[in-house]
Each structure stands twice: as C-alpha cells, then as structure tokens.
Amino acid sequence: SESSVKLLRLGDVLAIVSKEKRVLILTESDEFRTYFTLTQLDSILPSDQFCRVHDSAIVNLDLVEELISLGNHQYEVRVGTNLILPVGRSKYTDLIHRLGLPKRTA
Predict the structure, then answer these.
(1) Is 23 left (phi over 0), alpha (psi -120 to 50) or beta?
(2) Which site from 20, 36, 97, 98 is most exposed, i.e. has the minimal number of CB atoms within 10 Å?
(3) Distant-in-sequence, close-in-space partners of 14: CB < 8 Å, separation ≥ 6
C-alpha cells in the first residue's frame, strides 16, 4: 500500500478533534487522520486562527458560526455548516475573548 501526505490549507480546516484515541482534522467535506496529538497541534497552529475549546477539540476561529448556550454554564460552538462541538468550562472565557464577544453571551 502506498503512503502519502495530504496537504491542507489552514483556511479549510474546520476543527481538529480527538475521538476514540484518534486525532482527526475535519474539513467541510472530509476528515483526515493525523498522528500529531491535539497538544502538539495546539502549540504549532497559529493562535490567532485556532483555539482549543475543549480537551477534545481545536476550532478554526475564522469559521465559527455560532456559540450556543445550553444553560447551566454549558456551551457548544458551531463551526462551518453543521459541526457542533462542546466548549469546556475552562475554555469558555478564552473563546469569547478571542471571538471578540462580550463576557455575557446568551
């Protein structure tokens, strides 16, 4: 079997998520497995464009469409057309600051 390296434009990356011990890079139309950890990617991706929103997710701030309040200080973020990811309580303040939103949202 051949092995190849897929080059992605950062602007096409919706999010990077960890699930079932795998790290996946998600675009609108596809997902790609990477052997980097989320922590490694968080440290090398441009911090003005990407934000760690949960222990299991990094999102492209340019593609965040909606911040959803679930009540009881729980939030989700919608990235692109239909990708919804949880926002960790410890990550919420940084996320709204980086999105330029006021502290009280929803």
Answers:
(1) beta
(2) 20
(3) 26, 27, 28, 59, 60, 63, 79, 80, 83
- Asked whether the whole model's pTM tops 0.85, one would answer yes
Contact status, residue 62 vs residue 11, Cβ threshold 8 Å? yes
Cβ-Cβ contacts under 8 Å for 54 (sequence gap 6 or more): 85, 86, 87, 88, 91
Q: Within 10 A of 26 (CB to CB), how many other CB atoms are there? A: 21
Q: What is the pLDDT along the chain (106 residues), one digit of tens a residue?
A: 457 778 889 999 999 999 999 999 999 999 999 999 999 999 999 999 999 999 999 999 999 999 999 999 899 999 998 999 999 999 999 999 999 988 764 4
Residues 54, 92 contacting (CB under 8 angstroms): no
